[in-house]
Amino acid sequence: PVYKVPLDYLRACLDSLIAQAMKKCEFILVSDGAPEAECCICEDYVTKDCRFKFFKQEHGGVSAARNYGVKQAQGEYITFLDSDDQINKTLCSSIYKKAKESNPDIILFELLSKNKSESYSYSIYNTDISEISISEKKHLINEIFFATKNYGLILNGVCCKAYKKAFLDENSLSFDTRFCYSEDQFFCLNALLKAHKISYLATPLYQQNCRIGSASSSYKDGYEKEVTFYLDSLKIIAEENNIPSNFVYNRAVQCILYTLDKCIFRPDPKLTILKRKKLFKDFLDYPICNDSLQYFDKTNFKFSEIILCFLCKHRLFFPLLFISKKWHWDRKRLIQHNMA
Fold this sequence. Notes:
alpha/beta
């Protein structure tokens, strides 16, 4: 999916596709209402390499773009790439070799995350696995609900996985366009729940580029409703698949703290104290949020997070506002210091 990505990142992404050693594959680019400059770059790459296919559609969000791309796909296996990331030149050939050896529904592989100064690698196992056991599959599904290990990025993101096209079609697996929050997590969760066989490649084939500005830095109207819709949907999936409720409550607490920081207490002149207070109360009074603050497992959280949850549970708005203002102020000073 291509939409408002810095042009140098987009070129680096497409260059990593051209570098693929495997010739019998296709690179499907979908403009999600992207600006003309990005479309021109995509069209240029189509002329460079016959493996590229470029499609345009009106802006409908990343889920709609991915669904459109999957429908165009002719290959036996599908993997996803974000337009500001890159892949190892052996990704396609490595995936296909593993697919032919093991015939899995899903292949998981490792992640390398990079910023300007550092890189981090994420892995689940230390060796290739032809078929992950039933008990391990259950563990991975639990990790999607509430991550306790550092490999959550591999499980929760739609990337770092290859899916058998026939498996997606037979199970009518697609991205739910109603989700604007963690849409890829739901796709991955449903896929893992339905998969009969999962393989693993102990190789960092995907490179995630962490960049400033890749997510919106301003308040988004209705964000809290997106989060509560996501949590309600997560609870339904848990109940249908006998996932313990504490996994949902713990995940909800993570979402609550993230939403308070990203949205309700974020510095923004559009948000008055009165509006913040109403958003705060309405959000925390929502049943799944209220229940989660009552029943989450404190042993899985830091002491500072438990204190924040206590303040949320008792709806202590002004202490939380003060803490948030101090945190954002300290963070701003640190950024300014690093830039000096």
